[in-house]
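User: I've been trying to design a sequence by hand for this structure and keep getting stuck. Would you show me what you'd pick, starting by listing the structure so we're on the same page?

Assistant: Good idea, let's start from the same input. This is the structure you sent:
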């Protein structure tokens, strides 16, 4: 098997934990498909006595999903024993969670620069936390107030999630998690914008046809992303919605994937 980096990843968001091993190439001259084929030919779940849910090729490597921490440790030990020092074990870096604070008074932004904003002082005074635990990502005007996106450490995120609000000065502002997925307006996929799209075809976000949304004449909706997933993976997801619908199964899957990259604890 090729030289690789082995990462152990564990995610738990109030439900049963899902544990992954990620086999990441150190030598890019070998394809991840070769790694997958080599892995499956060398090992079997029965022989290893582990419960492997699935293997999946990602842009970062071969991801192996197991049911428990014990299974992933058994698999990891087997791989390390067989391959010796060809594997390095390390922890992945996760992003801090982001939150949206709504209805922030405009006068909190009198001073220029995110480090001098009165907003931060008010925030810290109300919660009793360190200013270094909060980072302003962006803010935008909504009527006569502003909405502010912040990045916080897990302890502050959990505190705010349980409260649901924060006092900015004398104003009580609602706060919630901010999960943002960039969606391409050309191919309708997530993770990139229109200017970076590599697709040759324009895909309608309403009917999945090869035309712009503004030119669509279809009466019925057919989500292009759910349709793609059904065609490729033989699933039976509902397609009777547009690509921007937040009840979309494909969108929910991408949100779950995003949460896996966030440090909640």
């Amino acid at each position: 098997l090729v030289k690789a980096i082995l990462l152990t990843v564990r995610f738990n968001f109030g439900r049963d934990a899902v544990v992954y091993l990620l086999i990441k190439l150190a030598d890019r001259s070998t394809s991840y498909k070769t790694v997958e084929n080599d892995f499956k030919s060398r090992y079997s779940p029965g022989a290893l006595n582990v419960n492997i849910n699935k293997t999946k090729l990602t842009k970062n490597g071969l991801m192996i999903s197991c049911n428990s921490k014990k299974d992933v440790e058994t698999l990891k030990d087997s791989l390390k024993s067989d391959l010796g020092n060809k594997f390095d074990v390390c922890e992945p870096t996760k992003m801090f969670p982001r939150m949206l604070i709504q209805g922030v008074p405009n006068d909190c932004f009198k001073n220029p620069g995110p480090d001098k904003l009165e907003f931060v002082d008010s925030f810290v005074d109300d919660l009793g936390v360190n200013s270094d635990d909060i980072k302003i990502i962006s803010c935008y005007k909504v009527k006569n107030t502003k909405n502010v996106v912040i990045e916080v450490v897990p302890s502050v995120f959990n505190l705010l999630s349980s409260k649901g609000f924060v006092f900015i000065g004398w104003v009580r502002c609602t706060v919630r998690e901010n999960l943002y997925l960039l969606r391409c307006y050309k191919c309708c996929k997530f993770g990139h914008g229109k200017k970076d799209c590599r697709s040759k075809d324009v895909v309608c976000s309403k009917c999945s046809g090869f035309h712009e949304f503004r030119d669509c004449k279809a009466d019925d909706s057919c989500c292009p992303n759910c349709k793609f997933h059904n065609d490729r993976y033989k699933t039976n997801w509902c397609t009777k919605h547009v690509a921007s619908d937040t009840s979309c199964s494909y969108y929910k899957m991408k949100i779950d994937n995003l949460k896996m990259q966030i440090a909640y604890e």
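That's my pick for every position. To get oriented when you compare it with your attempt: The first strand starts at residue 4 and ends at 11. Residues 69-83 form the longest helix (15 residues).
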